[in-house]
Specification:
- The chain is built from one helix and 15 strands.
- The protein is mostly beta strands.
- The protein has one domain: Porin (Beta Barrel).
- Strands 2-3-4-5-6-7-8-9-10-11-12-14-15 form a 13-stranded mixed β-barrel.
- The longest helix has 14 residues.
- The two termini are about 30 Å apart.
């Protein structure tokens, strides 16, 4: 019971920043060996994965393809292509390094159709099941700051096959105004041994 109370206490202060602007979106991932199937209410994203590759569809993306790889040590990388609902072609790369529970990640996207570059820079931590991250968003083409996203969660390992992560994400725009917070539960159900790259 203590493991359930702790994350709720941690998430409450963040949720109160925009208590009048709080939405709920949950997600679930089922994996077995190299196969995975996930659905996220935030954006209605459906993702099918096999090994390091995955294909996805959402309200903003007609079709997306992503490939992840483990580079060296705690360094991972990924590349993706998306054909958006606005008929734009977008390519991007992301890298992340994790050391001692601390994670630093960067990402760059190029909207080929609009000749527009955007980037992200984030840092996060994970300790005793509690995790959090701050990700800043940048317009590379015009060298502009576009806000940030703050995420807090707690990974509750219910059993060897099921984990539940209560979480809250708070967006902040370039004028430091709080947006609509999104709270939810992330469920991960595993059959056998999962070999996915996180």
């Amino acid at each position: 019971m203590k493991k359930l109370v702790l994350p709720l206490l941690l998430l409450c202060p963040l949720a109160t920043f925009a208590i009048d602007d709080l939405e709920y979106a949950h997600d679930i991932t089922v994996s077995s060996g190299k196969m995975s199937l996930g659905y996220d209410q935030d954006g209605d994203e459906l993702k099918v994965g096999f090994g390091a590759a995955s294909v996805y569809h959402s309200t903003s993306t007609e079709i997306g393809v992503e490939f992840k790889t483990r580079l060296i040590g705690g360094l991972t990388g990924s590349a993706h292509y998306e054909y958006s609902a606005d008929e734009d072609s977008i390519v991007g790369v992301d890298t992340a390094v994790t050391f001692g529970g601390v994670k630093v990640d960067t990402g760059v996207e190029w909207n080929i159709s609009d000749a527009d570059w955007t980037g992200t820079l984030g840092t996060g931590y994970s300790l005793a099941g509690v995790d959090g991250s701050i990700t800043s968003n940048w317009g590379i083409s015009d060298f502009g700051y576009e806000g940030m996203d703050i995420d807090v969660g707690y990974n509750w390992q219910v059993s060897d096959r099921l984990s539940v992560r209560p979480n809250v994400t708070m967006p902040i725009d370039e004028d430091n105004e709080f947006g609509t917070a999104v709270a939810g539960l992330s469920l991960h159900l595993t059959f056998g041994v999962s070999t996915s790259i996180e």
